[in-house]
Amino acid sequence: MSINGRLLLDENNLLSPLSWACSYGYGLFETILVQMGRPLFLKQHLQRMAESADALGLFMPAKEVLNNWIEELLIEATLRTGRLKISLLGDKKAAGEDKLQTNTLLILQEGIIYQADLYELGVEIGLLGLSKNEQSHLVRHKTLNYMENILAREQANGQGWFEGLFVNSQQRVCEGTISNIFIVKDGIIKTPGPREGLLSGVTRQLIIDLAQDNLLPCVETKIYPGELIGGEELFITNSLMGVMPVTKFAGTPIGKGVPGRVTSSIRKIYQELLDKEIQA
C-alpha cells in the first residue's frame, strides 16, 4: 500500500484519529479491477472521483500524480490480478482554504475476485427491506460512509442471496448493495436512471455505451419491483465482477433459470472491451 505516494510495509500511523475521515466518514473511494498488472478503466474511475471530490469540497491530487503513485505501487507489488482501492481521506481544513485537506491511500489486494461457475450458472438476488433517499446529495457519490450498504449486504447474505436490491422513497428499484441492476424485457435492456437514487457505476455506464454501440436497445427508466420477476433476463454489474447473470430472484427462476441470450451477448462484448483495455 501507499499513502501520499509513500510506500508502506505496515498499517501503523496511517491516519490521525482526529481526521474527518475517522470522525465522520468524510472521504471517497474507488475500487478498480487489476488484470495483467493493469488497473482497468482507471481514467473513468479517476474522473468520477474528481467530480465527487469537487462536489464535496475534497482536495484531490492531480491525475498525473495519482497515476505515478499507482504505477510505483504496482511495480513494487508485482501484482498481476486483483483489485486496487483508491481512498481520499478527509483530514482537516486549513484556514483560508476552500477544500478539505486529504490523504490519498492506495491499497492493492491480490487474487481472483469471482469464480467462473458464478457466471456459468448465474446468481440469486432479492429485494431488501431497506430504501435509499434519491434526494440525498450523497447518494451519487462513493463516500467512505458505507455502513448502510454493509448492513444491507449482511441482510442479503443472511437470506442466502448473492446480492440485495434497494428501493427508493417511491418504492422503485434503484441499485444493489455493491452493484447496478439491469433487466431485459421484450428485447430491451432497462436500468434505473441516475435520478432514482443510485451511484452510477463505471461499469454501468460502459454497458450502456456498449449496448448503444452494438445496436442493442438500452434505456434508463423507472423500474418497479414487480417487473424484476417478470423480466426475461436480469444481470448486475460492478467494476470487479463485470457482468454477472442473475438466474433467480428470491427463490423464483428468471426466464429459463439460466443466463439469457442478451446477457451472454453483453458479457461477450464487455470482455472484448476488457481485453482491449488490458492491451492498451
UniProtKB/TrEMBL annotation:
InterPro entries: Aminotrans_IV, Aminotrans_IV_CS, Aminotransferase-like, BCAT-like_C, BCAT-like_N, Class-IV_PLP-Dep_Aminotrnsfr
Entry superkingdom: Bacteria
Keywords: Aminotransferase, Pyridoxal phosphate, Transferase
One of the Pfam families matching this protein, by short name: Aminotran_4
GO aspect biological process, one term: carboxylic acid biosynthetic process
UniProt cofactor(s): pyridoxal 5'-phosphate
Entry-linked PROSITE patterns: AA_TRANSFER_CLASS_4
Gene Ontology terms, MF aspect: transaminase activity
Protein name: Aminotransferase class IV
Native species: Desulforamulus aquiferis
